[in-house]
Amino acid sequence: MNKLLYKPLGLLFSVLGGVLASAAFGQVWKLATGDKEAPSATQQDRKWSEVLIAATVQGAIFGLVKAAIDRGGATGFDKITGEWPGDKRDMDN
Question: Which end of the chain has the smaller Cβ count within 10 Å, N or C?
Fold first, then answer.
């Protein structure tokens, strides 16, 4: 039952994590390049290398933030309810 309660919380954490990751990426890109905005894939005046590097950095930041938010939320939920909301490792393997 408690795991069902975690679903809406997990969704909320994911949305907040996306906002946080987007802000973090914007700051990292600005610090690294001096540009206010990262290039998009469809900007004609940008080089392939710029677009692919931006996408790689963005993906890494989003992945890191998502993992941190998901793990923190699961850990907090476990501390409050005593029940881990996610997958458990199969100890038979």
Answer: C
- Integer Cα distance of 83 and 62 in angstroms: 27
Q: What's the one-letter identity of residue 51?
A: V
Strand, coil or helix: what is 84?
A: coil
**Which own/partner contact pairs does 26-30 have at CB distance under 8 Å and 24+ positions apart?**
28/57, 28/61, 29/54, 29/57, 29/58
CA distance to 4, 5, 86, per residue, from 1 (Å): 5, 7, 13
Binning the chain into helix, strand and coil, the percentages to the nearest 5 are: 70, 0, 30
Q: What does the pLDDT look like over 15-40, one tens digit per residue?
A: 999 999 999 999 999 999 999 999 99
